[in-house]
């Protein structure tokens, strides 16, 4: 079971390394869409969530580059 989780983590890191820019752009677009749909009522929360998700993708990509 541990090996399967490690393989999944490694695969996520590889994908983030190869496609991190597309993923972060998609997160930004999704955040903007949600912000529009909620008429800006939750802009700060949405921006914070998008920023954290983008940071995670960047960290995964950096870890993938180390392999």
Structure write-up:
With about 70 residues, the protein is mostly helical. The protein has helices at about 1-35, 45-65. Helix 1 runs antiparallel to helix 2 (about 45-65). The relative contact order is 0.19. The mean pLDDT is about 95.
- Low-confidence blocks of residues: none
End-to-end distance: 21 Å
Give average pLDDT, whole number.
Answer: 95
Give me the number of helical elements.
2
The structure class reads mainly alpha
Main pleated sheet: none
Number of strands: 0
What's the topology here?
Blueprint: H1 2-37, H2 43-65
Helix pairs in contact: 1-2
List keywords for this structure.
67 residues; mainly alpha
Summarize the structure.
This is Antitoxin. The protein has 67 residues and is mainly alpha-helical. It is 88% helix and 0% strand.
């Amino acid at each position: 079971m541990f090996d399967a989780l490690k393989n999944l983590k490694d695969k996520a890191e590889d994908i983030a390394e190869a496609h991190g820019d597309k993923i972060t752009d998609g997160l930004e677009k999704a955040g903007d869409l949600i912000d529009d749909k909620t008429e800006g009522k939750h802009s700060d929360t949405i921006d914070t969530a998008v920023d954290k998700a983008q940071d995670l993708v960047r960290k995964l990509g950096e870890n993938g580059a180390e392999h």
